Every structure is written in C-alpha cells, then in structure tokens.
Amino acid sequence: MSDECAVVWDDSLLSYDLGGDHPLHPVRLDLTMRLARSLGVLDGVRPLVPRQAEEAELARSHTSGYLEAVRVAPSEGPDVGHGLGTADNPVFEGMHEASALVAGASITAAEQIVSGRADRAVNLAGGLHHAMADNAAGFCVYNDCAVAIAWMLANGVERIAYLDIDVHHGDGVQAAFRDDPRVMTISLHQHPHTLWPGTGFPTEVGDGAAKGESVNVALPPGTDDAGWARALHAVVPSLLKAFAPQVLVTQCGADPHREDPLADLSLSVDGQRAAYRALRDFADRYAGGKWLILGGGGYALYRVVPRAWTHLLATALDRDVPAHRNVPADWMAHAATVAGNVPLPTSMTDWHDPGFTPWDGTVECSVDAAVRDTRHAVFPLHGLDPADSRD
Questions:
Q1: 158-178, pLDDT tens digit by residue?
Q2: Is the omega angle on the peptide bond into residue 197 within 30 degrees of 0, that is, cis?
Q3: Beta strand 247-251 with 291-294: parallel, antiparallel or unpaired?
Q4: Which of 4, 106, 291, 305 could form a disulfide with 148 if both were Cys (CB 3.0 to 4.6 A apart)?
Q5: Where residue 343 falls among pLDDT bands split at 50, 70, 90?
Q6: Res. 358: pLDDT tops 90
Q7: Taking residues 312-319, what's their average pLDDT?
Q8: pLDDT of residue 108
Q9: Domain 5-382, architecture per CATH
Q10: What sign has the CA pseudo-torsion 22, 27, 29, 32?
Q11: C-alpha–C-alpha distance, residues 310 and 326, integer Å
C-alpha cells in the first residue's frame, strides 16, 4: 500500500497532434505542465516516462482491422475508412505510434495503482473517450480509457468505476463495457439533444448482467457550478457506495467551462477545482483511495485548460493551489509567445463561489429534472430509492 501519486508525462506525448488549427492542440498540455512546474506543484515529482501500448493491449478494446487501418492510414490516405481522414480525425504521420503512446501512458498509470506502487496516478494526455472498437471519433484514435480499464481487468482488478466529467458523453467507454458487470460507467455531460455525439440519455442503462451500470446525467445547456455540483452529489456517491469499486477512473475533460468554444455549460475554474476535490473524496471514500486520473477535452487552450488541469494535478498530489494564487510571470511570458492575441489569465481563480445547495428530492429547476430522470432510471436497479435524497 502506498499513498503516493504517480504522474505520467514526457514531451513525446505532444506528438498526438491532429495538426493545424485542430481544436485538440497539444499546446494545452505543454502549457499545463509549464504552469504546474512554475507554481511548484511538481516540485520533487519525477514523472514516469510512458511506453507505447502493445498490440495485445490495444486489441482488448479495438478490432484487428481497425488497428491495421490506423497503421497504414498515413501511407494510404483517408480512404482507409474507420472514421479516419475526417475533419475531426485527420490522418497524421506517426498516428499509430502517437496514439499507442497515449494509451500506453494510461496503462503505465494503471500499472502503478495495480502494483501498489501508488494509490493515485495521472495521465493528462489521456481521456480519449470517444474512440470505438472499430473506428475513430471525436478527436480520439485509440480509446486509452477503455484500454487502461481492460488492462486492469486482465490483471486482477474485479470492479472498476469510470466517472466521466467531460462536457461530451463518454460514449466510447460506455460502449466498451455496457454489458460487462465489472465496470460501472457514469457520465455527466451536456444534454445529447444539444451537443455531439447525441448519446448519453438517462435511459441508456447498460445490457444484460450490467443493466444499471451505465449511468448518464444529461445536463441542460447553461448549467453552472452550483447546478453541476448539485447533480454530481445527487447521483454519484450513492451509486459508488452501492457498486464498491476497487479503482475509480476519472476522465476530467476541462470543456464544461463557460469559455469553452465547443460546448454550452457554464462552469468556472473554481467549480472545476471543487469538482476535482470531490473526485478525490469519492476515490478515498468508495475506492480505497485508488484513483486513476485522465485528461480529456478542453478547447480554451490558453485561458482555461492550463489552470484547470494544474488544479487537477495539485489535487491529485494533495498540494492544493489556493484559488486566488496569481499566475506566475514566467508562465505568462511564455504563454504570450504562443497565445497570439488571446488575453491571458492573471489568477488561478475566476472569482466565482462554487458552493451549491444539495438536492433534497424536489424538482425545482432543469438540473433537478436531470437528476430525477437518472435516479429513476438506475437507482432501483441497485436497490436504491430514487426519491430519497439520502440515497
């Protein structure tokens, strides 16, 4: 047993680069690591260098035909199919190697937890949750979340909870485990009627022996810190307590922020910081402290992602950064060289109170309707009362 947190990072992870003006630009990762170092969050931390995921490890989550298509796409071009060569998932040189490295980084993090060398492990380059078994989707080539979960299942872990707080539905991970009773997937996301990929309705509850273990909270556009936290705490703790996972895996996309250009939720960096603290508490309370932390979406590259994910790293390392801490001048100077005319943040806060009123069983607003719909869909399948706010 260890109480350490492993951080998986190497600049080679920046090679997952979809090119040009693609929204998933690796600069967000570079700026995050620079900001975390500048604030002292990573003092004394020796990051683990990832390896590429092996064929057999990828094949637990992807078909052989798809793996071959990814390998040959740079030479054969977009006609290779499988969702490759689209605007969302353009083909790029070294695509297999870069994608396998991201997946391998998530396995490297999982290895630390399963081996007992660390209780927590972070791969911010991961969280590519949209890739399906046989195709790329939503900026994601290999689904490192599913690959890491499958690796843990193959190496003795029997019950894993996956909690996805990206603004987009965690569809690829849900699809991978929708009939596997060993994995519970929970996704809080913008309502599928209003945002791609158009899935993640409360009625999607899983199949067969895993019925009730796919959980979806579909939040209305405009949901702010208070509403988001109200929904999280009204649904997630009861289900984690009932499921009793051995490891909690979280996908921590930074795109629920109100400045994100690809979505319509309204969280602040302060609300995101509070969310990460809640995830840490969930791991400690319901998963024996075992917490695998992955990145995800986030397209406000300069103003939001570096601050949000620096708070995430700090939370995982128990080195919480005070919300009102100023952004260091050296980071500002470097960021100015890559951000163009984008105004840079000067503080680690958005000056927003992330407090919320816990759900009390009533339906007073649209977030409460989302809570009601999810609880009624899945709580009875776990022996829980959907109307009782104590469950």
A1: 999 999 999 999 999 999 999
A2: yes
A3: parallel
A4: 106
A5: very high
A6: yes
A7: 98
A8: 98
A9: 3-Layer(aba) Sandwich (3.40)
A10: negative
A11: 13
Residue type present at position 162: Y
What was the pLDDT predicted at 3? 63
Find the mean pLDDT for residues 24-41.
Answer: 98
49 pLDDT higher than 80: yes
pLDDT of 227 above 60? yes
Mean pLDDT computed over 262-268: 98
Asked if 385 and 391 touch (Cβ cutoff 8 Å), the reply is: yes
Average pLDDT over residues 48-72: 98
Can you give the three-state secondary structure of the chain, one letter per residue?
Answer: CCCCEEEECCHHHHHCCCCCCCCCCCHHHHHHHHHHHHCCCCCCCCCECCCCCCHHHHHCCCCHHHHHHHHHHHHHCHHHCCCCCCCCCCCCCCHHHHHHHHHHHHHHHHHHHHHCCCCEEEECCCCCCCCCCCCCECCECCCHHHHHHHHHHHCCCCCEEEEECCCCCCHHHHHHHCCCCCEEEEEEEECCCCCCCCCCCCCCCCCHHHCCCEEEEEECCCCEHHHHHHHHHHHHHHHHHHHCCCEEEEECCCCCECCCCCCCCEECHHHHHHHHHHHHHHHHHHCCCCEEEECCCCCCCCCCHHHHHHHHHHHHCCCCCCCCCECCHHHHHHHHHHCCCCCCCCECCCCCCCCCCCCCCCCCCHHHHHHHHHHHHHHHHHCCCCCCCCC
Longest dimension (CA), the chain: 58
Told to judge if 130 belongs to the known catalytic residues of this protein, a careful annotator would answer yes
Indicate whether 1 pLDDT > 60. Answer: no
d(CA 62, CA 131): 9
Phi, psi of 241 (to 5 degrees): -65, -40
Res 78 pLDDT > 80: no
Q: Is the pLDDT of residue 16 over 90?
A: yes
- Going from the C-alpha of 66 to that of each of 84, 88, 150, 172, the distances in angstroms are 10, 17, 17, 15
Entry pTM: 0.97
- Are 281 and 271 in contact by the 8 Å Cβ rule? The answer is no
Q: Which residue has the higher pLDDT, 359 or 77?
A: 359
Rounded Cα distance between 235 and 379, Å, is 9
**Of 130, 168, 169, 257, which is the active-site residue?**
130
